Structure formats: structure tokens, C-alpha cells
Amino acid sequence: MKYAIIGTGNISNTYARAIAEMPGSEISACVSRSGNRLKAGPDIPVFPDLDSITTDFDAVIVATPNGLHCEGIIAAAKRGKHVITEKPLGIRVDEMEQAIAACEAANVTLAVAYQRRTAPDNRAVKALIEKGALGNIFAADLAAKFYRDQAYYDSADYRGGLSIDGGGPFMQQAAHNIDIYAWFFGLPEQVVSLMGTFTHKMEAEDHGAALLKYSNGMIGTIIASTSTKPGYAARLEVHSDKGSFTMTDDAITQWHFDDVPNPGNSDFQYRHDGATSAVVSDTSAHQKIIADFERVVEQGGTPIADAHSAKATSTLILEIYGSALT
Ligand SMILES: NC(=O)c1ccc[n+]([C@@H]2O[C@H](COP(=O)([O-])OP(=O)(O)OC[C@H]3O[C@@H](n4cnc5c(N)ncnc54)[C@H](OP(=O)(O)O)[C@@H]3O)[C@@H](O)[C@H]2O)c1
Fold first, then answer.
1. Residue 221: phi, psi to the nearest 5?
2. What is the DSSP string of 46-78?
3. C-alpha 152 – ligand 1 centre gap (Å)
């Protein structure tokens, strides 16, 4: 698979390192408005936009800031190219609907880089919840208490803004954890939230909390922050009438069910940077997203993180923002 990547910044270099280790895959072009080259692929030719690319490519990776994902997806679909987009799928419902429609009309695959869905413990828990094996879940509490310093927000004009980043930690850093939450539990019927900007000079929130009510009665809580120094591993605590479990990042750390064995895979190794850094140094989960995408392009099926479920994640985040505003 030959890829054109839109963006040459932080996560684009993760893709360049990931794809360099994948036989049969390569990046044949990148797009940069400013003519920047990929640090991890300095020989890859650079073009100012997708339409100017003269090298051959089969698929597009959209690695621009959040609010530009959907326009990149639509540009790729117009050229009849399959797409992997970075998370979130989008920061507005209408743009996500247009991007999904463009890919469906062009009959191209659209996958979203919610790479935490590839973690074996997350997949095992998802399967048990779908089977109803964990009983009636009445509480699910996510704490995504991360830390970014002011230099991170100052490193680009758009960071921490509403128009392009689409928000603070709910839309950006904790989107991965909220994605797992929505993947496990779906969308709530009621959301109440509070948020503020406490420790940074930035337009969006840097800390907040949401209270969710589900149609089955489940009460959920989500805390998302980039103000909680020094930055903690994300923690999810889930309780049902049958028992409880706790996950720290993507691993099951406590399991208390009498009749369901702990499905945790203790061999799983992944280096998490997200609590304190935007850099994804461990490329293995991105490689799984890319390999899964290539499988779907070649054989059909649905990507691990498909567009509709990724749209649900953004929709939940937008509902959390909507409540805070009112
Ligand atoms: N999956 C993960 O774990 C993960 C981790 C980090 C980031 N991400 C996601 O990856 C995306 C990019 O993040 P990043 O950290 O790589 O950002 P970044 O370092 O700022 O890179 C953004 C890239 O987009 C290009 N760009 C095009 N239009 C732009 C505009 N109007 N403003 C700013 N840049 C523009 C920039 O290149 P030119 O200016 O040269 O065009 C730059 O190469 C975000 O959506 C983020 O959520 C995901």
C-alpha cells in the first residue's frame, strides 16, 4: 500500500516510523503547506496539497489538526483514495456526516486512528460487555487526568483553541479514553458537565467533569484534564451487580467477578506517553491500525475503529461541551 500523508508534524513522524517497519507499505508523498519534510522520512517528496501529488499512491493518511480532518477525508474521497484519519474523526457533526457520505459515495474505506481499541484487554472487555457477561453495569468512572505545560499550548497557534483543535482535553488528549468509554457503553441519554481553564493561557478548557445518565440507568462520570500535574495514567472503574473491574491505561488492573475469569493479557506491552506528552513513541498500536486498514481495503469488512463509531465518540464529546456551555 502506498500512502500520501497530509501533515509532516508530530504524529506524521510516528506514521513514518511505523510504516518504515511494515514490509509492503510505504509513504510515497507528503503534503505540507510550508514545504516541511518528514523528519523520519526526509527523502519523501513534499507537495503543497493532495491535488498536486505526482507520485503514485493508493491511500491517504490525514494527520493535520483536528478541525481539518474532514476536509482531508473529503479531498481523498474525491480522488477515489482510501483514508486513515487521525482522531478525532471531526469536531462538528455536520462535517463528520459529510466526510462519511463522501467516502460512502466514492466506495472507499475510512478508518480512524483510535489505536487503543487494538489493545487486547480493551477488546476482551468489549466482547464481554456485548455478550452481557458482566451483568448490569450501573457505574463507569473514567479519570483522564493528564498534564501538558504551557509550552505545549504555545508550540502552535491552533493548540488549545476552539476553531481548529475543537476544545481542550475532552476533544484532544482524552478523546482516546472517551472513545473506549463510548465503544464500551454507547451514548448516554443525558449529560451534565462543568469545565474551566485553570492553569494555562488558552481558549478552551484545561479541566472538566461530566456526569452521564444512560437509558439502562447507568450513571457515568468522565474527568478530562491537562492541568493535573504531573499527569497520571488514565483510570476506568466499572461496577455491576455481578462485580467490578479497573483498567489503568489499556490494561485490566483489578478484576472481581466470581463467575467470569479475568480476560487480561499480562504479556501485552505498550509504552504510553499520553499522560504527559503529545509524542507517540511506541508505533506498535498505529501499526495495528494500519495493518487492519489494509486488511479491510483488500478483503472488505469494517475497520477496528470505523467512522460511525468514531463519530459517536465525537458526538459524546460535543454533548459534554454543549452542557458546559449552557
Ligand atoms: N493517535 C494519537 O495517539 C495521536 C497523538 C498525537 C496527535 N494525534 C492527532 O494528530 C493530529 C495532528 O497532531 P500533531 O501533534 O501531529 O500536530 P502538529 O505537530 O502541529 O502537525 C500538524 C500538521 O498539520 C499541518 N497543517 C495543515 N494545515 C494546518 C493548519 N491550518 N494549522 C496547523 N497545522 C496545519 C502542518 O503542516 P504544514 O503547516 O506544513 O502544512 C503540520 O505538519 C491531531 O488531530 C491530533 O489529535 C493523534
1. -135, 140
2. EESSGGG--S--SEEEE-S-GGGHHHHHHHHHH
3. 13
Cβ within 8 Å of residue 223, ≥6 positions away:
142, 143, 144, 145, 207, 208, 209, 210
Compute how many other C-beta atoms are within 10 angstroms of the C-beta atom of residue 66. Answer: 22
Do 245 and 226 contact (CB within 8 A), yes or no? no
One digit per residue, the tens of pLDDT, for the chain of length 326 reads 999 999 999 999 999 999 999 999 999 999 999 999 999 999 999 999 999 999 999 999 999 999 999 999 999 999 999 999 999 999 999 999 999 999 999 999 999 999 999 999 999 999 999 999 999 999 999 999 999 999 999 999 999 999 999 999 999 999 999 999 999 999 999 999 999 999 999 999 999 999 999 999 999 999 999 999 999 999 999 999 999 999 999 999 999 999 999 999 877 788 888 899 999 899 999 999 999 999 999 999 999 999 999 999 999 999 999 999 99
Q: Is 229 exposed, middle or buried (0-12, 13-18, 19+ CB in 10 A)?
A: middle
Q: What is the pTM of this model?
A: 0.97
The dihedral region occupied by 160, where left means phi > 0, alpha psi between -120 and 50, and beta the remainder, is left
Residue nearest to atom 36 of ligand 1 (CA): 7
CA-proximal residue: ligand 1, atom 14 (nearest)? 10
What architecture (CATH level 2) is domain 2-112? 3-Layer(aba) Sandwich (3.40)
Residue 158, ligand 1, Cβ within 6 A: yes
Q: List, in order, residues 6 or more apart from 254 with CB less than 8 Å away.
A: 244, 245, 246
The partner residues of 3 in beta bridges, in order of sequence, read: 27, 59
Of 17, 86, 115, the one to substitute when testing ligand 1's pocket (max ligand atoms within 8 A of C-beta) is 86
Please tell me the CATH code under which domain 116-277+306-325 is placed. Answer: 3.30.360.10
For the chain, what are the domain ranges? 2-112, 116-277+306-325
